[in-house]
């Protein structure tokens, strides 16, 4: 049975190593190491734990030149151990490091806020940038400075087939953006878009865009605005979603689910990173859980169940537990366990199979919307459900890499 799905914003395909992003490809999951980048073995071993948890891109912070150069050793050690997962260099402060990283890894992340000198002269006028030349006073002059500063990186990326993520953070907008747009979602969107326009002027479109904030409402509004403006300008770049500094435990998971999940429900997003204050391998199951809850990438069995009420005449909690134990390996299958027929058949309309209470000690089984077994004794109903799934050829896992 087909689900009611959001219409996904159709983006171009950006090749990142052997794992393409965007288009009709699955929404990718990534995370970031938190080891000392100079500790090659520790970083590699953490990356492997991330990969084994399902991470499809591994991002590594490079705060200085020596860390950037050490990406060569990290890359070589991972490949030696048989892992081909693409690596991303996270360049946050020094744009020059992106030029070094671009010849080593498959993708570099740059921050637009670092490409113009924030220091202003006493008169509020000119900035000395771009290889000694002075930019003309004003916004357009600064765009030309940015173009000159980013051109060497674009050339290296073209030569090596390296992708770029333009990563705008709410907390690090440049002075020039703040002066023109303020600390707003519009400013975030424009910060990324002006860089995309510059890259296009240099005939480079191997781009991914990201607008992140720790405030979920700002993050959601900024990304919706980004898509709206991209559509008006004929752009179709893949979008990276994430809530920054989401926290730890339940708080971090809920905040990430609200921010990322809301946009996925709009059909926005091609890759996600859940940023929680825990070891990065623990971010991956949360990310896949959000994707599944948003019905955009199915990676496990989904169980739809009601909370029960006075109409429920069987122990739904223990029954659900038993059904999960027997059918939890059926990735991609939706199974509903409902307390009664009042709301059950309607609320489980999206399920492949349904187990519905029919009265004291009696159960009805559904295949999709169709009632196929009526008034079964509760004691054998779970086994009957299993047999029904087998009879219909669904006992093997459905494709778990659905790109909806």
Keywords, separated by commas or semicolons:
TIM Barrel, alpha/beta, Sulfite Reductase Hemoprotein, domain 1, eight-stranded parallel barrel, disordered C terminus, five-stranded mixed sheet, 404 residues, single chain, 13 helices, 13 strands, 39% helix
Give the secondary structure arrangement, pairings included.
Layout: E1 28-32, H1 40-53, E2 57-61, H2 65-69, H3 71-80, E3 87-90, H4 95-101, E4 107-110, H5 139-160, E5 163-169, H6 175-181, H7 185-201, E6 207-212, H8 216-233, E7 239-241, H9 249-265, E8 271-272, H10 283-293, E9 302-305, H11 316-327, E10 334-338, H12 344-347, E11 353-359, E12 362-367, E13 370-377, H13 378-391
Parallel strand pairs: 1-2, 1-8, 2-3, 3-4, 4-5, 5-6, 6-7, 7-8, 9-10, 10-11
Antiparallel strand pairs: 11-12, 12-13
Commentary on this structure:
It is a single chain. Strands 1-2-3-4-5-6-7-8 form an eight-stranded parallel beta barrel, surrounded by six helices. The chain has 404 residues and is α/β, with parallel strands linked by helices. Helices cover 39% and strands 16% of the residues. The chain is elongated, with a radius of gyration of 25 Å. The protein is built from 13 helices and 13 strands. The protein folds into two domains: 266 residues, Alpha-Beta Barrel (TIM Barrel), CATH 3.20.20.20; 90 residues, Sulfite Reductase Hemoprotein, domain 1. α1 crosses α3 and α8 packs parallel to α9.
């Amino acid at each position: 049975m087909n689900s009611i799905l959001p219409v996904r914003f159709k983006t171009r395909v950006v090749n990142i190593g052997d794992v393409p992003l965007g288009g009709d490809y699955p929404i990718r999951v990534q995370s970031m190491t938190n080891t000392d980048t100079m500790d090659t073995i520790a970083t590699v071993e953490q990356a492997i734990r991330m990969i084994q948890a399902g991470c499809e891109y591994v991002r590594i912070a490079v705060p200085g030149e020596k860390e950037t150069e050490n990406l060569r050793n990290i890359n070589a050690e991972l490949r030696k151990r048989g892992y081909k997962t693409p690596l991303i260099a996270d360049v946050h402060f020094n744009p020059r490091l992106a030029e070094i990283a671009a010849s080593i890894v498959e993708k570099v992340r740059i921050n637009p806020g670092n490409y113009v000198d924030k220091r202003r002269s006493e008169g509020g006028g000119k900035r000395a940038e771009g290889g000694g030349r002075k930019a003309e006073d004003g916004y357009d002059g600064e765009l030309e400075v940015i173009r000159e500063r980013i051109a060497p990186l674009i050339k290296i990326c073209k030569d090596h087939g390296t992708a770029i993520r333009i990563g705008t953070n709410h907390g690090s907008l440049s002075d020039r953006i703040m002066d023109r747009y303020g600390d707003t979602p519009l400013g975030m969107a424009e910060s990324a878009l002006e860089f995309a326009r510059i890259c296009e002027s240099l005939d480079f479109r191997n781009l991914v865009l990201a607008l992140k904030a720790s405030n979920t409402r700002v993050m959601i509004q900024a990304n919706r605005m980004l898509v709206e403006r991209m559509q008006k300008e004929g752009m179709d770049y893949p979008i990276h979603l994430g809530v920054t500094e989401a926290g730890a435990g339940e708080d971090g998971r809920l905040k990430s689910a609200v921010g990322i999940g809301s946009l996925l429900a709009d059909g926005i997003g091609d890759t996600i990173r859940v940023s929680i204050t825990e070891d990065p391998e623990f971010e991956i199951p949360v990310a896949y859980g959000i994707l599944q809850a948003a019905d955009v990438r199915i990676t496990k069995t989904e169980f739809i169940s009601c909370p029960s009420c006075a109409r429920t005449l069987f122990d739904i909690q223990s029954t659900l537990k038993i059904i999960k134990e027997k059918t939890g390996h059926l990735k991609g299958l939706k199974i509903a366990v409902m307390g009664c027929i009042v709301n059950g058949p309607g609320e489980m309309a999206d399920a492949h199979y349904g187990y519905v209470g029919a009265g004291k000690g009696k159960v009805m089984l559904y295949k999709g919307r169709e009632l196929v077994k009526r008034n079964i004794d509760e004691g054998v109903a779970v086994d009957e459900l299993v047999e029904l799934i087998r009879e219909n050829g669904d006992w093997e896992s459905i494709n778990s890499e659905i790109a909806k």
